[in-house]
Design brief:
The complex is a heterodimer of chains A (726) and B (490). Chain A has 726 residues and is mainly alpha-helical. Chain A has 26 helices and four strands. Chain A has four domains: 1-120; 121-547, no CATH class; 548-598; 664-725. With 490 residues, chain B is an all-alpha fold. Chain B has two domains: 1-273, no CATH class; 275-490, no CATH class. Chain B is 76% helix and 2% strand. Chain B has helices spanning 2-22, 27-55, 57-60, 79-102, 109-128, 132-150, 156-186, 200-203, 207-222, 233-236, 242-269, 271-274, 278-299, 304-324, 328-359, 370-373, 375-389, 395-409, 412-441, 459-477, 479-488; strands spanning 62-66, 72-75. In chain B, helix 4 (79-102) runs antiparallel to helix 5, helix 5 packs parallel to helix 11 and helix 17 packs parallel to helix 20 (459-477). Chain B starts with a helix and ends with a helix. The chains are: A mainly alpha (726), B mainly alpha (490).
Chain lengths: 726, 490
């Protein structure tokens, strides 16, 4: 239950912070302190009750959370950092824009960070890690200056690419061994092939290392930390980078064991050492207060990662490296809290972070001076402060491994070189911190330095500085009582046996390392910091920026590379789609259509010639001719003499037939009836003679004679026919 | 209950046809009619889905009639069908509400709403079809009924888009037709059956030919799912009014293609015939390649709607990749991604539409600093954009994870190419979505100021956006039970 509360309580607080943060006042300040304080209390309770919890069903497999060991320590540390920055925030954000947004994302990130530390399986870890990346993006971009926007973009890009690389690694791992539970992984991963384990390890290292600020993925860090608001810088540098380190530790101790662990340690050592040295080297040349601190963070992360890799090299007996790693994480968080909050005090008084503008700011401010000094001494590894203890442990682990190698006949030279780079980086740390201290608190003030009216810091901010400043010497002087116990509590997470014997921190051999570093540091400070980088003119000092602006990994390599990749990708995509494109949109389609049309023309050409051209006319003509030929006899018959002749013939025949018929049929009847009529009619009633003329009468008589003749002939013919028939 | 299934297909078709005949002149009257019709249709679709969910698919099946022994028209909302149906039943009404505001000043609204309502029924027909013949019928009819929507603008670009759409769809249909004919030869019934419908006795000795036919049909249905090289119509179709682009070209039409591929693989040819053969490799490779291609194109496309269209090209191939892995997990992953991608992409398109409609913003570089003027729209864009990338709390993460796992489990070079393509595409998605989101809220100082009259979208639009975002978040929180339920039906 407690782990779930730790994760989801801040998310609720985020929902409340947005409306409350719309206007300044007690409400939001109370919420900031109350919620952070509650978180710290809950985290503290986790130290004593290592509870596990589960939120089933969310994101497919559900969220698995568990407390205990290093997880609890990191949760307490996170809660503490949040409470401290909550105290310093009201003053810093007074009068600033978009506070509500900042405070909402402030809590949201806390919840996600708790989730990262409490995650019992890698998928849960990834989920919270991604949420954290996105919500902390808003911190970086908060000021919305062009630099902030550019830096935040880099941050987001690195976070996204890192997150997806991690996802790839997790996918490979899950595909191969079917579990992502951190407690079950060592056994499950032992069965995997070595190349696969290293592939997965490198994928996860890219993701976690990007967040931690490991070379070569550190590019976002020196840019993002300076542009964020100071409390956010303290958190980004102090605890968010640790989430990456936490992940690297989790990967190291759950994926690798035995001989592979040593290989993995060697692989990890290279970027770790480069980060360690490069950060310190860049910090020496920086002329910006927060950038110096950011580069310093990078360098310290390098120290911590060196510890992780030494732990892997030493195996189960690497407790000394493990303790050093955990304690340096703790120390670095506290140191950066103090230093960044102090930088915030400088910024909201002077409104600048350029060392030329802020020099001499703290000459008359003893509290700020002491707090800063405490942080500087601790980070530089001055005996008596917390940083000395952890650095001594880390140094010892390198020495121990080199000795171990020499005893077993291995080549210890690389580790002696690592040891010297370690001491050199420690020296550079001292050099740049001394330089910052000198510039802020000893150098003369410029004439027109901006200064806030009234007190230069609020009681809340002051209390943060006091707590941070006091804790470091307190922890450093009671190392056996406090720090050793914390380290011993955290060791089980790293699967290491407890230390066999307590380390004598103030023995001569251990002090020797610190002495070498301090000597180097003093020399660098005097020769480089005070001579080469400082110009004195008329009693005033000016700090030169000699680092060439163009020499920037991001601008030189990453951005051009990304642009190139995007162009190349687009080029090939276009190239591939070009044929289709040409076919559909461009001349290609025209060609295809043209070809089709040409073919169609070719096919239709005979027909077309036939229909439109001479062909048809000829065909028609031919047809016509044929038709004429066929119809000619008919026509001749119909129109010409033929018909007339035939008609004449027909007529003649018809006449003949008619004459014959009438002769045969009617003449006898006519004859008989006419005669009869003539014979039986009264002479006076002779209508016939009355109405007919003489000539008519004469014709009748003639026709009568003809009739008679015909009848006679006809009768003769019939008789003849009948006779013949018989 | 049986008639409910038929009604959910038939009612919108009739209602849409009625509107086309009626052609009311009064805006309010038509809007009310369209709302009522689509909501009633949505209710019917969801009711049918619920029936099938509660009482089983057979209880909701409806056989309309048969043209021959094989050619049967029948509807049966089984598991995958009701998932698709439920997506349509929720998103179609939401789009109608949105388009009330979006289409306010457009012309030819009778035509628009008529075909809009009509195509609802047709697409539901695809979701609920019981056999390949019905599926094919509805599929063809969908091309025809959505064409007037694509060409709504009736200017040169719209006509060009319509021409491409028909050209490509016809090509696809030809390939599918081959498959249907071959099916008739090798099986007794075209009814979907999990595990395949081909008669083992008949196909003996013809496996090679059948695999070739599968690849042809895969590309044939892939036309609608914008598979390379048949994707071209989709970016061109972004000239259509936003409700159409959002609903049809991110959800309905394109998901129909993916859905039909699922039917083809799991309910047609059957995994046993295809798994581990060159046909599977070809399908996996085509999908993976399209994923890379679509993402790479989206990154360098400054026109917002076209960028989203290219993103759709890539995301549809996620679904095809899942189905092409040809095992139970692949089907689960593909259906799950259908749900989540539908919600994300429709929201993104609606946001783009709100920016376009109210402020005439079309290109991503015009959106700098819009977050302050259109806070709700930009917030919705951010939520759905982050979900689209597949950042863990969102359901898209789970579906992509399952897709990658299924593809990797299918083995072979193509199987491992798939997850690699997914990771590449996730990086690209992050770049092309976050590039827009970041600039919306944090403009560069050098960017030109927004016009004075830039304003937030009206209540109908923002309401729809809020509803969809809430739905997306709720389903993301419920991703485990949802994926378990979908996994149970395979």
């Amino acid at each position: 239950m407690i782990p779930l509360l730790l994760v989801f309580l801040p998310m609720l607080a985020a929902a409340a912070a947005y409306p409350l943060g719309q206007r300044e006042g007690r409400g939001i300040n109370a919420l900031l302190c109350a919620a952070s304080g509650l978180e710290l209390l809950l985290a503290l309770s986790l130290l004593f009750i290592p509870a596990a919890a589960e939120a089933p069903g969310i994101c497919g497999t559900g969220l698995h959370l568990t407390g205990g060991s290093l997880r609890s320590v990191m949760c307490v540390l996170a809660g503490f950092m949040w409470l401290m920055t909550a105290l310093a925030s009201p003053e810093y954000f007074a009068g600033a824009r978009c506070n509500a947004r900042y405070f909402a994302f402030y809590f949201w990130t806390l919840g996600a960070l708790m989730g990262v530390f409490l995650a019992a399986d890698l998928l849960t870890l990834l989920i919270f890690f991604e949420i954290m990346s996105f919500t902390s993006y808003v911190w970086v971009v908060q000021n919305e200056t062009p630099e902030a926007i550019r830096a935040s973009e880099t941050y987001l890009f690195i976070a996204v690419v890192g997150g997806l690389t991690m996802l790839t690694g997790l996918f490979l791992l899950y595909n191969a061994c079917g579990t992502l539970e951190l407690s079950a992984l060592p056994e499950a991963a032992a069965g995997l092939s070595v190349p696969l384990r290293f592939t997965v390890g490198v994928c996860l290292l890219v993701g976690f290392g990007a967040k931690a600020g490991m070379f070569p993925l550190h590019i976002w860090l020196p840019k993002a930390h300076p542009v964020a608001p100071a409390p956010a810088s303290a958190l980004l540098s102090g605890i968010l980078t640790k989430s990456g380190v936490f992940g690297v530790i989790a990967v190291t101790c759950s994926l690798f064991s035995g001989a592979e662990a040593a290989d993995w340690g060697r692989l990890l050592l290279v970027p770790a050492v480069i980060t360690m040295f490069l950060g310190a080297f860049l910090a020496v040349f920086s002329v910006d207060l927060k950038r110096t601190l950011a580069c310093s963070s990078m360098s310290q992360i390098g120290f911590i990662l060196t510890g992780v890799s030494m732990g892997a090299l030493l195996g189960g007996h690497g407790a000394i490296a493990g303790c050093g790693t955990v304690l340096h994480m703790l120390n670095h968080s506290l140191i950066k809290l103090t230093l960044f909050v102090a930088a915030g005090v400088v910024y909201f008084n002077v409104h600048s972070l350029d060392l030329n503008d802020v020099r001499g700011f703290g000459r008359d401010k003893p509290m700020l001076k002491l707090a800063f000094l405490s942080g500087a001494c601790s980070i530089a590894g001055i005996p008596g402060f917390g940083g000395y203890i952890s650095k001594t442990l880390l140094h010892e682990s390198i020495v121990e491994y080199a000795e171990h190698l020499a005893e077993h006949g291995g080549n210890a030279l690389p580790y002696h070189i690592v040891e010297w780079i370690f001491l050199l980086s420690g020296g550079l740390t001292l050099a740049y911190m001394t330089r910052l201290f000198y510039i802020l608190f000893i150098a003369p003030k410029p004439e027109h330095q901006h200064q806030k009216h009234g007190a230069y810091m609020s009681p809340g901010t002051a209390s943060v500085l006091v707590v941070g400043g006091l804790l470091m010497p307190l922890l450093g002087s009671t190392a056996h009582l406090t720090m050793d116990r914390i380290a011993a509590y955290a060791l089980p997470f790293m699967r290491m046996h407890p230390m066999e014997h307590a380390v004598h921190y103030f023995s001569l051999t251990n002090l020797k390392g610190a002495a070498i570093s301090i000597t180097i540091g003093t020399l660098v400070f005097l020769l480089v910091g005070m001579k080469a980088l400082t110009v004195r003119k008329n009693g005033a000092e000016r700090y030169r920026s000699v680092w060439p602006k163009k020499l920037d990994l991001e601008d030189l390599v990453y951005r051009p590379l990304l642009r190139l990749l995007s162009r190349v990708g687009h080029f090939f995509a276009r190239l591939i789609e070009l044929p289709g494109d040409r076919l559909v949109n461009g001349p290609g389609m025209k060609w295809v259509l043209g070809l089709g049309r040409g073919l169609a023309r070719l096919i239709e050409l005979p027909g077309r010639w036939l229909v439109n051209g001479q062909g048809l006319r000829r065909v028609v003509g031919l047809g016509n001719a044929l038709a004429r030929l066929i119809e000619l006899p008919g026509e001749f018959l119909v129109n010409g003499r033929g018909l007339r002749g035939m008609i004449d013939l027909g007529t003649a025949l018809a006449r003949a037939a008619e004459t014959l018929g009438s002769m045969l049929l009617f003449t006898p009847l006519n004859l008989i009836f006419f005669r009869a009529e003539r014979s039986f009619a009264a002479p006076e009633d002779d209508e016939f003679s009355r109405y007919t003329t003489r000539s008519e009468r004469g014709r009748v008589d003639r026709s009568f004679a003809a009739d008679l003749l015909c009848a006679g002939l006809g009768a003769a013919a019939v008789l003849l026919f009948v006779t013949l028939a018989h | 209950m049986r008639s409910l299934t038929l009604l959910s297909v038939l009612f919108p078709i009739l209602a849409g046809t009625a509107l086309l005949i009626w052609r009311p002149g009064d805006d309010r009257l038509r809007n009310r009619y369209a709302l009522a019709a689509v909501f009633a249709g949505g209710a019917l679709v969801l009711a049918a889905a619920l029936c099938s969910f509660r009482f089983g698919a057979d209880a909701a099946a409806f056989r309309v009639g048969a043209l021959s022994r094989h050619l049967v028209i029948a509807f049966r909302p089984d598991g995958p069908g009701l998932v698709f149906g439920a997506i349509l039943g929720v998103l179609w009404p939401a789009t109608t509400v949105y388009s009330l505001s979006y289409m306010e000043h457009e012309e030819r609204k009778n035509l628009f709403y008529g075909f809009f309502i009509l195509s609802f029924g047709v697409v539901v027909g695809i979701a609920y079809s019981a056999n390949f013949f019905t599926l094919y019928l509805c599929y063809e009819f969908m091309t025809l009924s959505t064409l007037p929507l694509v060409m709504h603008g009736m200017d040169g670009a719209a006509r060009h888009a319509g021409r491409l759409y028909v050209l490509y769809s016809a090509t696809g249909a030809a390939l599918i037709f081959i498959c249907i004919v071959v099916f008739c030869r090798y099986t007794d019934s075209l009814d979907f059956a999990l595990g395949g419908i081909l008669d083992p006795a008949l196909i003996k000795g013809h496996e090679g030919m059948l695999r070739t036919v599968f690849v042809l049909a895969f590309f044939g249905f892939g036309v609608k799912a914008a598979l390379f090289p048949f994707y071209r119509w989709l970016p061109a179709a972004s000239v259509a009014p936003t409700p159409v682009t959002a609903l049809l070209h991110a959800v309905a039409v394109v998901k129909s293609g993916a859905f039909a591929v699922m039917r083809l693989v799991y309910f047609g040819f059957g995994c046993a015939l295809l798994r581990g053969t060159w046909a599977q490799d070809a399908a996996l490779a085509a999908a993976s390649f399209t994923i890379i291609f679509g993402s790479a194109m989206a990154l360098r496309t400054p026109h917002l709607k076209r960028r989203l269209a290219y993103s759709t090209v890539a995301n549809l191939s996620y679904i095809l990749l899942a189905f092409a892995s040809m095992d139970a997990q692949g089907m689960q992953a593909g259906l799950l991604h259908m749900v989540y991608h539908a919600l994300c992409k429709i929201t993104l398109f609606f946001c783009a539409g709100a920016m376009l409609h109210h402020n005439r913003f079309e290109y991503v570089y015009e959106l700098e600093g819009l977050g302050r003027r259109m806070p709700l729209t930009c917030a919705a864009f951010t939520v759905s954009g982050v979900a689209l990338i597949g950042i863990p709390p969102f359901g898209n993460f789970l579906s992509k994870w399952l897709t990658a796992a299924a593809a990797a489990a299918s083995g072979g070079w193509a199987g491992h190419f798939g997850p690699a393509a997914l990771v590449f595409s996730a990086v690209m998605t992050a770049l092309y979505m976050l590039g827009v989101v970041v600039r919306m809220f944090f403009p560069l100082r050098t960017a030109p100021a927004l016009p004075e009259d830039t304003r937030e979208a009206d209540r109908l639009m923002t309401g729809t956006l809020i509803f969809l975002c809430a739905l997306l978040l709720a389903l993301s929180l419920l991703s485990a039970p949802l994926s378990a339920w979908i996994g149970g039906m395979t």
